[in-house]
UniProtKB/TrEMBL annotation:
The keyword Nucleotide-binding applies. This is Peptide ABC transporter ATP-binding protein. Keywords: ATP-binding, Nucleotide-binding, Transport. It comes from the Archaea.
Amino acid sequence: MTERTAGHEEGETPREDESALLEVENLETHFPITEGWLRRETGRVRAVDGVSFELRPGEAFGLVGESGSGKTTTAHSILRLEAATGGKIRFDGERVTELTGADLRRFRRRVQLVVQDPNDAFNPRMTVGEAVAEPLALHGMDDGDRRRAIVADLLERVGLEAADADRFPHEFSGGQKQRISIARALVCNPDLIVADEPTSALDGRIKSDILALLDELRREFDIAVLCISHDIDVIRRFCDRVGVMYLGKLVEKGVTSEVLESPAHPYTRVLLGSVPSLDPSDREFVRPLTETVPDPADPPSGCRFHTRCPELIPPSDVALSRECWRTIARFRFAVEDGQLPESVAVETDESSVDESTVRVAFDLPSTIPDETVDRAVDDAIRSLSDGDLEAARARLAEAFPTVCERAEPNTGDERERSVRCHRYDSSVEAAPRSWMR
Ligand SMILES: Nc1ncnc2c1ncn2[C@@H]1O[C@H](COP(=O)(O)OP(=O)(O)OP(=O)(O)O)[C@@H](O)[C@H]1O
């Protein structure tokens, strides 16, 4: 066992939080896209692209976001199941990517994974007892009687019976198999459990029971949990703090109750589906501008959410109602994306679409109470009706520059609450925070 690295390594910036168990700093995991038999790299999927968070001992931190936002890749990079391409991961002060030999084995013992589908987690030819004891044997515990005693105790702790050790995994239900996975994760006395969608393969009551079990065990044994889920309810019930991921970035981070009760980032609001208000009749349903999630191999510039953001910041000289601006932004990004409604999609240069059809399709008013905007929208509609998507795209992009597209927002690196949105940056001229309620 090597001595734990105290403080920071030579030539490095001091660690943000000396008491953290896990520190993830600017993590990047990109996957190369290759072509041809020479496997020439033609691009990169930016699955995780600058993610930072910490986990304190015994704390439950949740990563939430739509499918494809990079949650699993983040977890796998921490576990060294995927190779991080940038950034730093420290576990108990040690750089995870640099661990080798005995140090790596110790790390693998102290950090355990619980996967989504317990059916994939077991070798069907091993008894439950053998499966749960396997990590003990791998980590050098030769005494069979001792292993059996530990397994019997753990099976009882997760709500099964000691005698279940002699049965095979296929004899158990999904919920019971997840209990066995949890027993196996606990057997080496870990400090951190990474739970990747631990309940999404389970139904209602069983899901609740498994969450309650995980919660009880983590408190009893003081185990930190990194919980990955697209299910807000799981995060709400289980996690002390939460990070919201969108296209490889953490867009908001904070104490779970605060983030879920007063979500600040427009994407978090979209994910939750509403802007909370004390008066339930005053709740506003928040929808993204478009449903199309951009490709992580070619993410939008600036803020990655800008192409779908209902709070997109307008150019400073545009004075329109919020709803009117949203309609125009929706129009702009649908055109940019080439996602045109059927009535507008023009196949060939010869065909054309009536201008009023374009207006109806995008809900655009016949006149817009801002002359410059009105002219730009008119020009774009004319180009679209002539089937010239490229000209419409260029006109709209030039007419509506936005800081959200131009620059990546900072988080300000506040530990307890951070929001990666220009609307929270005092140096950006935008509507005040209260505008977002
Ligand atoms: N090995 C890989 N090679 C190339 N691209 C990958 C690889 N693994 C993941 N990706 C891509 O990286 C992005 C993030 O995937 P990831 O599985 O981490 O997201 P997620 O938020 O966990 O989603 P889900 O809940 O669907 O698992 C996706 O676009 C995915 O297609």
